[in-house]
Amino acid sequence: MLTTEPPAPLVLEPPFYAELVTTSNFSFLRGGSHPEELVAHAMAMGMTALGICDRNSFAGVVRGYVAARENQERSPDFRYLVGVRLVFADGTPDIIAYPSDRVSYGRLCKLLTLGNQRGEKGSPHLVFEDLFGAGTPAAENQQGPLEDFSQGQLFILMPDEGNWARTEETLDRLSRQAPDRVWIAGVPRFDGHDRARLNRVNALARRHGAKMIASNDVHYHEPDRSIVLDVVTCIREHVTLEEAGFRLSANAERHLKLPVEMARLFAEHPDAIAQTQAFIERIQFSLTQLEYNYPEETVGDGETAQQTLERLTWEGAAKRFPEGITNEIKRSLWTELCLIAYKGYAAYFLTVHDIVKFAREERGILCQGRGSAANSSVCFCLGITEVDPRKATLVFGRFISTERDEPPDIDVDFEHERREEVMQYVYQKYGGRRTGLTANVITYRSKSAIRETAKVFGVSDDTIVALNQLHWGWGSKLDLRDLANIGLNPDDPVLAQMFEVVKVLRGFPRHLSQHVGGFVITRDSLESLVPISKSAMDSRTIIEWNKDDIEALKILKVDILALGMLSCLRRGFELMEAHYGHKVELAELQSEEFRSPELARPVYEMTHRADTIGVFQIESRAQMTMLPRLKPVRFYDLVIEVAIVRPGPIQGGMVHPYLKRRDGTEPWQANPDDPLDMVLEKTLGIPLFQEQAMQMAIIGAGFTPGEADQLRRAMASWRRTGKINIFRERFINGMMNNPKRQYSRDFAERCFSQIEGFAEYGFPESHAASFALLVYASCWLKCHYPDVFLCALLNSQPMGFYAPSQLVRDATEHGVEVRAADVNASLLES
Length: 830
Known about the structure:
This protein is of the alpha/beta class. Helix content is 45%, strand content 10%. Strand 5 (153-157), helix 4 and strand 6 form a beta-alpha-beta unit.
């Protein structure tokens, strides 16, 4: 995909075969491969289609969908199918269900939601009767009969070889309820009885008017992963490999097989292979059909969403720019509004505006948008963000652009003590069946992968502790020679195999958790879009997809997050107005250095002394060490300060070169003929922000905007995915062959090493700008009203690096008189 000359597309040849029973690692400790690996392998093998069908869940289907979409040019005739393996609590054999169209997909989502609501978290509870709408409702207050969820589904029954009578009974019921939509899987077990087994399954199918369909009941993409399946099985069953016995697979055959191999295995039943093609021809559903209808309740009378957005934007602009709306501002706003109209995102902006308006005007909650939304002048005029994009020199294209085929992402921070009020407002307005929190996929990291795998291999607890003290990180490679330091034999083949499993297990999903505040809101029922799960709180519902899945499907979400400093600032502003009669708002403070630089000067001079105990973001030892060297004198310097003391710039070797250029030790002047210098001019030729890394890839290495966006995603997913390394040679070769200026390989490699640093918490510029405003506001409050700042900080505890006693001592050193609490004189918060 990233090569200059893409490989020739695969031409599918007979025998045509599709694997329709595939379990990924999103069946949680029951699969040995990622969905992406399964899809890529199936495409490379020349299969016509692959269906992912995990246990009672659609959690992993989007991952496979993205892999198929990104490799479509390589195999244009390949089809990716979405199914589910229905596992029942009443002993019914497993049934694979594939929706034939969008409506039947919605029914399947509702069925899975029913199982999730009835069961415990992570353990759905379904019975066979639920499939036909004859089961009991999930809640006592649910009225009316359940829907017949079997309508429109194509079924593949998995025979229970331990209970053939129950298998035939289930097949008989399925065939009567869903005539001409039922198959039974013929699966070779490689135990010497496959001929008799397949003949029996075929005869069973004929008796009930069904067809046998070929499958290998796949659990991993290649044979080497069989040991991984054995290990996750032992983790699930809480046993060692030695104790597992018949819980493990009898052989290593549950991998994807070439179509010719499957045809050989079913040589006496060629129709079973042909049925895989007949099956996929009847499926018209694809994840691309999930048209997302965003709620329109916020639209004014007689106005479209776009008209309402434009009216509110210009009303807000008049308030934000009381001195008058310049032509530059008008041009910026019209550009953004036209792009929002083109993309159809107006309703999304209105919903976020409504939530912010409720918090700020009805509840008096301090809030501000951050992330890429800070690039937007429309968000600034709507009051969603507080950073003026003109003064922070931000780029709207990082937020929305014609090249970026994905929805915008608006993160809004609210006071950490009052965020629940906002979340309850969202639930009350849109209802539990139209609102859900996105999931967070909890994966195995280095230590947990070592610990769990070592237990399965029978390693003692003290040895596991010693192994974890070696602590290989995501980006490091396992060096078995280190084992000698803790008394183990580096040449032990069992240990070598164990660590091969550890390397694979890192990044495997363990379970689904709840995102801190990513809301998905729909106009219609959310449960027809994605299954809804239970969370630890009864009032919460979470969907099965995480933020990356939502983004891949172009579904809009609203992030409602919490920030302790906002609670502190709101208290500080209230105390300042009550005791000093001085009323101020966040956005006004950013304008201060432009309108009254003499008022801003002492605030910046305070940072030169690293007098920042209690101040947002720049109170740590590392930040306080950096401040006297950086010496901020304007708002953009604070943006850099927030971003530079991060693992990304530090590991990328960016900090010292920037400081030397800033203080004149190494003078630097932008070269107008060097395209990279124009990208990095604001940061003195040193890349500090993710946006700059993307521009370096586009301008310096010839990436397309789409490829640069993939690079951004790789940076955002840390080194644990390893995806950023895919871009290395493409980037280096692109820079060496730049038509405007050919860079040396050494320089190109150093540039990519700097970009790799962003894999560890690199900051987007817009995000840093939003935080920089809170840095300035808290500095301003401490500088001009240290007593107010201390009181607000103490009332907002716990937060920050310092204990209350340290905050009190620091305030005392600044001349604040601190008295003991007195019930006769003290109010609740002052």
